[in-house]
From TrEMBL:
It comes from the Bacteria. Residues 448-646 form the Peptidase S9 prolyl oligopeptidase catalytic domain. The lineage of its organism: Bacteria, Bacillati, Actinomycetota, Actinomycetes, Pseudonocardiales. Transmembrane segments: none annotated. GO terms for molecular function: aminopeptidase activity. Keywords: Aminopeptidase, Hydrolase, Protease. It comes from Kutzneria viridogrisea. InterPro entries: 6-blade_b-propeller_TolB-like, AB_hydrolase_fold, Peptidase_S9_cat. This is Dipeptidyl aminopeptidase/acylaminoacyl peptidase. The keyword Protease applies.
Amino acid sequence: MDTDVRFGATWRRVTEFFRLMHSPGELRASDLTEVSGRPGSAEVLATATVCDSLNDPLRRVIVRIREGELAQVSDGKADSHAATWSCDGTRLAYLSAADPRRGHHLCVQGPDGCREIHLPGAAEQCVWAPTGASLLVRVADPGADKAGAEGSGHRPGTAGPANWLPAVDTAATTSPGRSLWLVEAETGATRPVPCGHTVWEVGYAGPDRAVAVVSAGATESDWYRAHLSVIDLDTGVATELYRSERQLGRPTGSPGGAWIAAVEADCSDRGIIAGTLLLFDHNGQPRPVDTGQVQVTATQWLDDRRLAFSGMRGLASVVGVHDLVSGETRELWATEAGLGGLHEPDAYVQPDETVLAAVQQYRKPPAIAHRLAGASTVLVTATHAGTEALRAQIGDCATLSWEAPDGERIEGLFVTPNRPGPHPLIVYLHGGPIWAFRDRWLGSNPIIALLASHGYAVLCPNPRGSSGRGPEFVAPVLGDVGGLDGGDILAGVDRLVDAGPVDPARIGVMGGSYGGYMTAWLVTQDSRFKAAVPVAPVTHWRSLYYTTNIPRFVTNVVRAEPSEAGGVYEARSPLTYVANVRTPCLNVAGALDLCTPATEAHQFHRALLDHGVESALVVYPAEGHGIRTFPATVDYCTRVLDWFTRFMPADAQSGR
């Protein structure tokens, strides 16, 4: 493989694909998320993803929907997101950064203009008080770790006195944390809320209390053991409300403060949660809400008796509302389309139970729609001049189900190219393992549609461990990594081979994070794969435990301690069985990845070479957990396409 792929035909085709996708240089949204409505008004805001150039990172802007078009609300060329209105609709708050590498600050727009409020760190979350008089802002200290779902790495830090000084870590080392700040909306005055904990997520619980997911420690790993506390905003005193062996998220209180809601689930990454909706009364006693088998991903109080929620049920996105007085739960919108953002469904529900949400499917670009009484209306769409050219080349996507070896029903998405089969197949594996594919524009990652545009079919399975099927579907992967979930994936491949659309002589596999682990694992267990691309992989669970910034994630999924000789740490690590591999592997990593450090990819690459297996190692110096920014994304996609073309070309004759 060439070390520089920037001048080849594949590079040019990949560049054109992303140019059509993003139409860089103008305010054209390639994605729409974080939809919100202005109280007492028909005005709708959202966060749009835009591309200024394929040589620069993507940028987020706050946009207003006006007569079917998008108008920018946030100023200049800043990266801005997380817009939210005060309860009376007079003030708008959002997070903004002229340079995201230096961290976001709070912006508040109101009758007196726009005020920028800078706090001692990077603002990560802002929440309005029920009265609209103040906001809570969660702030990350300089140098704090970013979540894996954000790409890992560090929040902006402070420069040291000299660049030769070593980084020193001892048992006494204090990690940068996350604090809570109160901001007065009218004056912009700020003060810390000294609760004595690291605050991971926060919501108001009445006018003078907050409810937060907190931990005593400040490392990213401490989040996996965080608990729920109620914080007095005057004194900063934090009173523990609930502890769980699982993870907690989406804390929020009813406007009057009588009720608190949170979501409890087994989670892989901070910020991504799909689980059981819990309600806490004034005695602090939790009770689960019957959401009709929906794993809840987002919550919103409509008033003191109604709690709206979004979530997943299988491949479907669902929005509902629970009435605390009657105990009734009603669905407002259930659709096979993808609602909300990349990681999980979310929506904004108005007091009359009109739902506002971003909606999309594989062949339908992101749009913002509202739904009331079973009828949906599209308010604006991200369709632009490049959309039809993309549709003409990306093929189609359908839902697929099959039977696992033990009889369990497994679901997934199957993308087919615009040409007759049997097709070469790429099995694309999601991360987590507790996450799931949903039907989204161009796939959950645009490389899915890019592969289809070059003649490859793509299977996106949701095996055991995936979200949307309840805790009993997640549980089997915990302590059995690469076990039942590996069988689920291979059964899906067998299903497609037996049915005829896939050429058994041209099957490849790729994935990132846990999907990178499964990619490396499967090629040690099965010889059918002609090429593989493990991205940000785990290749040995013990080495990961001792080098990752989230060792508690490792013990959560492996369900064993690394000090135990042998056991699951050896038995379920790809490096243990590397002598079995015959599949050429393109190993990809980011140098800034703290979750699955680049050493995991490096050691697998070295072991493959030692055993005479074709292998390449590509480490991007400015990337973290996954390849996310331009122009690295174009380079990465070019290398992936070249790798599969080399070992299982799409234009080859069928092996049947």
